[in-house]
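Hey, can you fold this one?
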Amino acid sequence: MGVPKRKPSHSRQRQRRAYNSVLTLPQLTTCPQCAAPYVSHRVCPACGFYNGRQVINVEVKA
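Sure. Predicted structure:
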């Protein structure tokens, strides 16, 4: 059975474990107000609504 000769350094361990965060993408849901996709538990960037009320005013880009 293969056994490592030396202990892996902290940076090498962290490089190996950091790749797991790249594999998961943020889950998107649809906004009930405007039906635009947005990240859960965040303000909708399209309409500015969160939890059924308007939190920020979003200007229309023309």
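The first strand starts at residue 28 and ends at 30. Let me know if you want another pass with a different chain boundary.
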